[in-house]
């Protein structure tokens, strides 16, 4: 596994740039006068462009080698973050996310490096390193964002430049540490499977896994939509600025690491996939509902005037997200939202790896790779569509409505899972850990 250590470190450093930005981006856009719908479009820009750019960069890596394409994608990410830090208007912010999305083949190319360096028997274990990097990154990234904001007096540009520094470090690590994994004689000979619409339709019609693929899309649409809207919701309901949202995302990341690091192994051994999926849907539904009814009680230090000053970058731009009054401050709202994130984070952490685990048990060994690829496509489709739908509901029907609707859908899915999903023998702890992310 020593050959994989550089890949793990590079992916982790690269993810730190992304996770620094996640809690900040909606507020950064709001500071340019963006409406919730425009913020939703901004949130969707990255996954949409990534879906378009990643297959092209993947084919280029098959032809020219992994290392040069990984370096190019990292330079694109670096340029996107620098442009974000320099942004003086909403169109420039959109351009920054588009550039980052087009060059966002970093993870896919890193997975190809792992595939090149592992045997078939150890490949899943190697790919699990990507999941571990995600867990660590989504814990450390918000912490770095919190520190950068605190030291800069809530200057939203500073975290973007810090993210750019991590991307530059990732580029340097790739340049001087990572060895090319695809020999020259193999370039141009790698056959990359093209995921077609027909393949997705056939998979959805599969008698055993079609429902699980729909379930994968639905849970990611709801949980991913919640993550996208969370900063906007807490700004609107509790007056949380970027620092408090970074702290909230850090809290979510810690719970996720705990769940994926050990709890899911114990649950898998004792109870099996169906039970975990039902618990995941139930806890996520509870967390969404609790979020929706968060009391409008900003924390004691909240000042509406100060929050407006933080967001309003110039007199020409008006903040389009309503802020709570500061006439009823207290601790209830903050304690409530952090408590709501406990069941929400538990559900969000266990659902995707467990659904993938259930899929692998219901297909032939030769179909596993293809089905997991389609499952990943469902996640990408959900990530691209959830910000658009969620932000429109948020703007036109109210801040709580997306969370209430998500909770209702999750409870319906819970009933369907209880009736339609046949129980399977519990999976080994190692297998679940390998399938995470």
List keywords for this structure.
2 domains; 17 helices; 76% helix; Growth Hormone, Chain: A; disordered C terminus; globular; mainly alpha; 437 residues
Fold and architecture overview:
This protein has 437 residues and is mostly helical. The protein has 2 domains: 1-177, Growth Hormone, Chain: A (Up-down Bundle), CATH 1.20.1250.20; 197-437, Growth Hormone, Chain: A (Up-down Bundle), CATH 1.20.1250. Helices cover 76% and strands 0% of the residues. It is built from 17 helices and no strands. α4 runs antiparallel to α5, α7 runs antiparallel to α11 and α12 (273-292) runs antiparallel to α14. The chain is globular. 50% of the residues are buried. Mean pLDDT is 86; it is low at 425-437.
Structure, briefly:
With 437 residues, this protein is mostly helical. The protein folds into two domains: 177 residues, Growth Hormone, Chain: A, CATH 1.20.1250.20; 241 residues, Growth Hormone, Chain: A (Up-down Bundle), CATH 1.20.1250.
